[in-house]
């Protein structure tokens, strides 16, 4: 299809192409293949379900509440995604200069960016929900085709709210801080939802299901969930109920149109502000004469901690990685004495945290040439960088060690020793098998360093197991110590040539 | 005893995957000289400078900075040397003062002297009004100037710069040039690579032309003209350079 260059459809095609390529061409075929299989499987499973009952609200009354709640949670996640995506198109893409310098309507640019946000926010839900519409057509529920317009309306609503919220943050905090705040907000909404889905792993299945049933019954009887409650709006709209679908469409299209009409100018101003170098802004505050501190240890530790501490996004990423790890760790321990097993979990979490921080201080050094050119013992600098990574983790673990000491000095000793061992081991792996990268690649640091990532995991698991064994099954401790100690030793031995290449030998 | 050369390189060799980037290079630069190292892309200029700065290990040969062997006595060589790469990275989350404090710490300078020097440099390079803003908000030229301030804070006797004017506007380029001239007038040695031949022509006392990892010509501009056999003595450095580095020359 030939589109008029510069038209909003032409821009939209450009936007879609970029979004598509963001997926990564090398992963595209695999993703498409897996996606197609999953989509067909969804149709088949839904067909089986529709064969049993076509009306969820009559077969399982609480199910309607659950479906309604799921849609609202989905909308929250869409919003979180829309915020993150808005930040991306507002600050990160880097092509706005080009687009705005071209003889295109800035409003068209804004509309297309908004549609891109809407599309990407709703894509996953379309994948999951459109099979319901298709199966509904076969099983005599044609009204479920309303899922399509309802999803479009929800996407537009999420995009409008996401962009409006992002711009409100820009207004309140300034462009740079807003970027961080929006990313944190989006990430934490996602993480909170993830933890919610893992409630079954965190608590016993019996307890979870009892809590869920009680909550659903209470919700069903609640006056706030009456016939005309907004709670039912997305569910009713998707079931083809005309007033609800109309209301949702008006809300979606209306809010998007409103945001475009009212906020396009501010959006573009916010972008320009974020892109402008400081010389273009006011920087004329009075500056006190500098006072320098002395000592290599102090300057290296201060520098590393400042670089991490001033990057909330980095902290969030580091902590979120740990947060995502927690439910998985609880799976094997929920039926075992918690007292004995909390400490290994903390040791493993600390090891992962130290690994991430060590990667930041060692591999993601922003100015390696500056440090290499300095007249200092490079090994000492590297030791200080490892210290910068492990000391904050030790500080976080210290209160638990003290708390444990009140009930068992032995357990506190084991915990302290294993915490130190685990954090040093994973940090040494980062030093032993270095893979230089940019700080922004923290979450993708395992890419291209599979061996390092495996050894990292092995060391973390080994130290967690060693902690558990020393506390509960001492005779197995030597067995657990093998991976704990072998992983860093292996990394050091295998990474010799890589270190030499990077002049770290 | 004669004073040691600012830089003395003998038979330097560096290979990458079987290809000789530097192939037996010899170069001597006396103290107090403004020296330009020219050559086509991939000639071995940056590799040579990185070896001199202690960032790469040579496969063979020697390099001495003010008499200190960069391989055997690397720390002593680094103390008197500053190296500014072509795309210097500064820490975006640190402000200019914090960055210079870190660099001063690496060179183990006296804190009070370093703080005074930092203020002088930032004022000289017109970065003082933004001294407390994080470097992530700086333009490329400002980051380049901050990196230059970092290179100068320990008052190096030998300053090695790889393409120092890349990305600088005319005003900033002028500031940097003035600063380099001042260093040489104060007795320092400046060695730089540049693709801006006019800069080399106007500033450098002597010029070395490097090609395929070897020095193919060296001397003042007049001497280079002679080497390029331009008897009229009126050829620009560009013409001389193109003649000396032409394929088959």
Task: Report on the architecture of this protein.
The complex is a heterodimer of chains A (505) and B (249). In chain A, 78% of the residues lie in helices and 0% in strands. With 505 residues, chain A is an all-alpha fold. Chain A has helices at 8-22, 25-52, 56-59, 61-92, 96-101, 106-138, 147-173, 175-197, 199-202, 205-221, 233-238, 242-275, 296-309, 312-330, 338-363, 368-372, 378-407, 409-432, 450-472, 477-494, 496-501. Chain A is globular. Chain A has 21 helices and no strands. In chain A, helix 14 packs antiparallel against helix 15. Chain A folds into two domains: 8-277, no CATH class; 296-501, no CATH class. Chain B has 249 residues and is an alpha/beta fold. Chain B has a domain at 7-85 and 159-244: 3-Layer(aba) Sandwich (Rossmann fold), CATH 3.40.50. Helices cover 37% and strands 24% of the residues of chain B. Chain B contains nine helices and ten strands. Chain B has helices spanning 45-52, 74-80, 96-106, 111-124, 140-152, 170-185, 197-203, 221-227, 237-244; strands spanning 7-16, 19-29, 34-38, 60-65, 68-69, 81-84, 158-162, 189-193, 206-211, 214-219. In chain B, the strands form two sheets. Chain B has a six-stranded mixed beta sheet, sandwiched between helices. The longest helix of chain B has 16 residues, at 170-185. Chain B is globular and about 55 Å long. The chains are: A mainly alpha (505), B alpha/beta (249). At the A-B interface, helix 13 and helix 16 of A face helix 2, strand 6, helix 3 and helix 4 of B.
Report the major sheet of chain B. Answer: 6 strands, mixed
Q: Count all strands of chain A and give the number.
A: 0
CATH topology (fold) name of the domain at 7-85 and 159-244 in chain B: Rossmann fold
Q: What is the radius of gyration of chain A computed over CA atoms, rounded to a whole number of angstroms?
A: 27 Å
Structural class based on helices, strands and sheet pairing of chain B? alpha/beta
Secondary structure tally: strands of chain B: 10
* Mean of all residue-level pLDDT scores of chain A: 78
Count of all domains of chain A: 2
Spatial separation of the terminal alpha carbons of chain A: 58 Å
Order of helices and strands of chain B: EEEHEEHEHHHEHEHEEHH
CATH class of the domain at 7-85 and 159-244 in chain B: Alpha Beta
Q: Residue ranges of chain B: pLDDT <50 for 5 or more in a row?
A: none
- Compute the CA-based radius of gyration of chain B: 18 Å
Please report the two chains with the greatest interface, counting residues with C-beta closer than 8 angstroms to the partner's C-beta: A-B, 37 and 53 residues
How many H/I helical runs of chain A? Answer: 21
What is the element string of chain A, with H for helices and E for strands?
HHHHHHHHHHHHHHHHHHHHH
CATH architecture of the domain at 7-85 and 159-244 in chain B: 3-Layer(aba) Sandwich
Which structural class should the secondary elements of chain A be placed in? mainly alpha
């Amino acid at each position: 299809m030939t589109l008029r260059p510069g038209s909003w459809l032409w821009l939209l095609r450009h936007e879609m192409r970029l979004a598509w390529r963001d997926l990564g061409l090398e992963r595209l075929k695999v993703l498409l293949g897996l996606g197609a299989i999953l989509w067909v499987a969804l149709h088949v499973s839904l067909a089986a379900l529709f064969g049993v009952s076509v009306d969820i609200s009559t077969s399982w009354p609480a199910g309607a509440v659950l479906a309604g709640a799921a849609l609202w949670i989905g909308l929250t996640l869409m919003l979180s995604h829309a915020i993150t995506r808005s930040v991306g198109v507002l600050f990160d893409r880097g092509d706005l200069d080009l687009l705005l310098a071209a003889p295109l309507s800035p409003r068209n640019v804004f509309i297309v960016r908004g549609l891109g946000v809407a599309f990407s926010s709703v894509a996953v839900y379309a994948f999951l929900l459109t099979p319901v519409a298709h199966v509904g057509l076969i099983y005599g529920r044609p009204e479920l085709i309303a899922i399509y317009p309802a999803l479009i309306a929800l996407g537009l609503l999420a995009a409008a709210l996401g962009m409006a919220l992002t711009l409100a943050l820009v207004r309140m905090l300034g462009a740079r801080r807003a970027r961080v705040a929006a990313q944190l907000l989006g990430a934490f909404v996602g993480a909170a939802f993830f933890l919610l889905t893992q409630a079954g792993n965190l608590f016993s299945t019996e307890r979870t299901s009892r809590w869920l049933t009680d909550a659903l019954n209470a919700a069903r009887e609640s006056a706030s969930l009456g016939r005309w409650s907004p709670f039912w709006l997305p569910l009713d709209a998707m079931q083809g109920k005309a007033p609800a679908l109309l209301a949702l469409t008006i809300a979606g299209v209306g809010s998007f149109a409103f945001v475009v009409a009212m906020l396009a100018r501010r959006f573009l101003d916010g972008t320009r502000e974020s892109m402008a170098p400081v010389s273009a802004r006011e920087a004329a505050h009075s500056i006190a004469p500098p006072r320098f501190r002395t000592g290599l240890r102090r300057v290296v530790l201060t520098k590393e901690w400042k670089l991490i501490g001033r990057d909330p996004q980095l902290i969030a990423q580091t902590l979120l990685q740990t947060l995502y790890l927690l439910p998985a760790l609880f799976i094997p321990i929920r039926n075992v004495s918690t007292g004995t097993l909390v400490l290994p979990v903390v040791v493993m979490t600390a090891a992962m945290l130290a690994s991430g921080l060590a990667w930041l201080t060692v591999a993601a050094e922003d100015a390696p040439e500056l440090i290499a050119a300095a007249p200092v013992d490079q090994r000492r600098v590297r030791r200080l960088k490892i210290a910068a990574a492990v000391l904050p983790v030790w500080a976080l673990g210290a209160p638990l060690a003290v708390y444990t000491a009140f009930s068992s000095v032995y357990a506190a000793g084991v915990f302290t020793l294993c915490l130190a061992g685990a954090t040093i081991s994973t940090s040494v792996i980062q030093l032993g098998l270095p893979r230089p990268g940019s700080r922004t690649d923290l979450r993708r640091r395992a890419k291209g360093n599979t061996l390092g990532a495996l050894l990292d995991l092995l060391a973390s698991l080994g130290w967690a197991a060693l902690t558990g064994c020393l506390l509960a099954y001492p005779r197995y401790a030597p067995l657990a110590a093998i991976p704990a100690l072998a992983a860093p030793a292996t990394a050091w031995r295998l990474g010799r040539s890589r270190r030499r290449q990077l002049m770290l030998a | 005893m004669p004073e040691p050369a600012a830089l003395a390189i003998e038979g330097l060799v560096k290979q990458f995957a079987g290809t000789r980037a530097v192939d037996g290079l010899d170069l001597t630069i006396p103290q107090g000289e403004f020296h330009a190292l020219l050559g086509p892309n991939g000639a071995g200029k940056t590799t040579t400078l990185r070896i001199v700065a202690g960032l790469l290990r040579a496969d063979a040969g020697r390099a001495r900075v003010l008499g200190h062997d960069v391989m055997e006595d690397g720390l002593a060589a680094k103390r008197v040397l500053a190296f500014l790469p072509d795309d210097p990275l500064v820490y975006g989350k640190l402000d200019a003062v914090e960055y210079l404090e870190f660099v001063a710490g690496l060179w183990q300078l006296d804190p009070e002297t370093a703080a005074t020097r930092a203020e002088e440099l930032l004022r000289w390079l017109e970065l003082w009004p933004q001294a407390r803003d994080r470097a992530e908000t700086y333009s490329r030229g400002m980051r380049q100037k901050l990196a230059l301030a970092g290179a100068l804070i320990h008052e190096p006797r030998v300053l090695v710069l790889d393409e120092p004017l890349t990305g600088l506007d005319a005003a900033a380029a002028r500031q940097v040039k003035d600063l380099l001239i001042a260093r040489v007038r104060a007795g320092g040695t400046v060695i730089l690579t540049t693709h801006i031949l006019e800069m080399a022509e106007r500033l450098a006392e002597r010029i070395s032309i490097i090609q395929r990892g070897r020095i193919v010509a060296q001397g003042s501009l007049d001497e280079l003209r002679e080497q390029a056999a331009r008897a009229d003595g009126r050829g620009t450095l560009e013409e001389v350079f193109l003649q000396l580095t032409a394929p088959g020359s």
